[in-house]
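URGENT: need a sanity check before tomorrow's submission.

F., can you look over the CR-type domain-containing protein record below? I want to be sure the sequence and structure line up before it goes out.
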Amino acid sequence: MPNKSETSTQPAKTKPVYTQLTLDFLEAVLGAQKGIQAEVLRICPDCNGRRIRPGVASSSCGFCRGTGQVLRSRAGAKAALRDCPGCGGRGLQAQQWCRRCGGVGLAKVPISMQIKVPAGVQDNTVLRIPSQGDLPEGRNKQGDIHVVVAVQELEGMSRRGADVYSIVSLAYPDAILGCSTEVGTVRGQRQLKIPAGTQHDARLTLPGEGVDYRGASGATHRGSHHVTVNVHLPRNVTPVEKAILLELFAMQIPESQQV
Ligand SMILES: [Zn+2]
Ligand SMILES: [Zn+2]
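Structure tokens as predicted:
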């Protein structure tokens, strides 16, 4: 069983450093190598972690004689060691503190690095980068960086989980007679077969053209691309078209009599 002093020397977990990363729609779907920036605590570059201003001779705090702690008692309580009010626990005279780090020896510095964004991340996903964050005051293990992902929209395509959605516009003869049309998916252009008699608002699916996701078993699956059909009806027709349409309607066999 650990004794009390061992438990108390256990360093507190360093808080993560947060940073933002914007991805376009396809980067989020397919994964990407991206650069991130963050501000993290490191050994102060001005004083090299020595806490005193460069070129200034170190002299100890007069209150605590450099220990950083003083014995103080409150009414009714036993005297205990507390951070020295003269130096805030630093042990150095305030005039000597490094200006950049305020005598702590650690300062925020900008860093940048490349990270691998996995395929299929969603808006507001938090990517955890271990041991690249703040260096704590004890100067032991660095904390983590948490990258909050923002995914940009893409005109004409939307996504829900692993499935992608888009709309295809068809001329009405193509919907009636059937055709093959090209559809833009996250994996490139694909041919979609429109069956004869496809109705307005019908949904057709290109299986396996969606977003990768990890199932409960750990295996990778892929969602689908769903296309909603928008049958385009012309607002105006030429006199010739009108004559043909009237002729067509005159000879149309009622649906009840169709075989
Ligand atoms: Zn410093
Ligand atoms: Zn002091």
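My own read: The first strand starts at residue 17 and ends at 23. The helical segments are 4-9, 25-30, 172-177, 239-251. If you see anything odd, call me.
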